[in-house]
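[step 3/7] fold_predict: job queued, chain A
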Amino acid sequence: MKIKLSIISNTRSGDKGKNSNVGIVFKNQLLYQWAKKNLTSEVIKSYFKSVVKGRVIRYELPNLWALNFILHDSLGGG
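[step 4/7] structure written:
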């Protein structure tokens, strides 16, 4: 089954130089646990493959039920 991420989470993005970030905050712990298993750095890099030229690093924030991804070399030099 496919659903929009906006149904199960809130998101935000930002930029710093040539890198961008995507933060995803899930609505409950069960959804967060699902995301930890399924939203890997590789999945996010594949989804953003047209803009991400570098690596993608995932940070886990379990106290917020959130994941933050840094997308290196994604803004064409800043």
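[step 5/7] annotate
The CA atoms of residues 10 and 58 lie 17 Å apart.
The chain has three helices and four strands.
exit 0
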